[in-house]
Amino acid sequence: MAECKTNSRRDCFREAVCINASRVYDACRDRECLENIPVYFTERDQEMINNAIGVRMKCAEVINVGIDTEPVPFNRGYYCVDLTIYFSVVFDVTVSPISSPCEVTGLAVYRKKAILFGSEGSVKIFSSDVVIDDDDIPYPPSGNLPKVVCQIAEPVCLGSQLTRACECHCDCCIPRCVARRFCGSFEHSCSEKAVTVTLGIFMIIQVEREVQMLVPVYDFCMPEKICIEETNSDPCELFSKISFPTEAFFPPREDCCEDPC
To answer: Vertex 35, ends 30 and 38: CA angle to 5°?
Structure first.
């Protein structure tokens, strides 16, 4: 080991250790404008849509992403990643010119496909989790498929439209974890009106594998911050320590928000 020539212990190389970590073999980013995606409603909300004279999209949220990974035939090391993105979309629905809008929530579904490199694996991985007073049973072995991670920013609401249509039911298989977020069933009789939305999304898709890496170690990570308990502190004294929120009163100019790079 090389001799340490600095005064800081954290600047001194102590040893090389082997760690198990997720290595990113391939990744891609995407900016997509999803135009005219149909929105599905439960029976109660669909009845309100049928009587609506106008809808306005308030917000949208990604509630789940289904990921299916399959090897690409005749292209070793590459995988086809099928993503099914589920959005929860909130609307203000107007049923009469003299009444206040009512809020309803619908489900929008978008499918995307990407081909990424994930290397090859030919082993089965077993691992165990020790539980006190229980059998040390290993987890089911993981196969050769790599792990896919999808990161999605909050959707940008770009527009919504109320149209006449006859959609008998949602033509997609809705996972139970998604359906539980909505009160009611999506299986109902034909609708008189339909709603479509346009959303903007930003996403990053990564393909990872668990690998062993040799990394340099400088020192153990000892927290430098001391825990302080202030259960009996004066609330006004605590409030006086909060910085004044200048940004809330004076929003930054356009030139101040530009990326210097």
So the answer is: 120
